[in-house]
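re the bet — no i am not wrong, look at it urself. input seq straight from the record:
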Amino acid sequence: MPKISCIVSTYNRAKILPRIINSIINQTEKDWELIIVDDGSTDDTPKVLEHYNRLDKRIKYVIVLENSGDEEERTGKEVQPINMGISIATGKYICHVDDDEMFYPDKFKAMSVILDHNADIDVVYCDEIVSRVSEGIHYITRERSKHFDKEALMKYNYIGLSDGMYRRKVLEKVGTFPGGSRRFNRTACDWEFWKLLVKLGCKFFHLPLVLEEGYSIASSPHHWEADKKPFELTEEILRKKLVYFIHSMDDPKYYFN
């Protein structure tokens, strides 16, 4: 049984899918399985999955012949790929990632060490940045960061699907991700899931480190002009912050004091 199961649902992302897969392969924590559910892609996604499966047997994939549907339709079927991945997962800890994101190399190690040394914590979540590329330049446009606030989470979602890692036993309480209602689409299923865990008494822990990155191409060279920050400078700050934490992991009490 692997320590960590990471689940990805993808659709027609053959060109960018290697980005997230490679970021998983490059994790410093090596005890993992990657489960990719191809939600009826019509591009070269199956070929990409076959290539990576041959490259690394920790990478597993399932091909769904028919797409589960447009998440804007909100039929509830859109969460089926996520639940299919969950049904296959065998890891002690489970996490998810969108197919257009990337995990930094210490993501699995930093998150799992919290769960390893704190039996009372059910869910740990980290920070993320969203970046854009404009005219070939990489910019940070937003950083998500908020310490756990139960009341706030009931009002709005500040924990993305890719931000969290949770214990397998959590699924024994909830079964699957919410679905079957117009208000439970794939975009909102993570929020419904977190709220359900709160109601069931699960304990959350916020790890204030940026360990992942969402990515997209700016539609206009000037669209993100107001909040541009050179990626390289921001990354240097983030890495210094992460190095401090990694050095403290030999003695977890050091971090929590």
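see?? Residues 4-256 form a domain with the Spore Coat Polysaccharide Biosynthesis Protein SpsA; Chain A fold (CATH 3.90.550.10). told u. also The mean pLDDT is 79. so pay up
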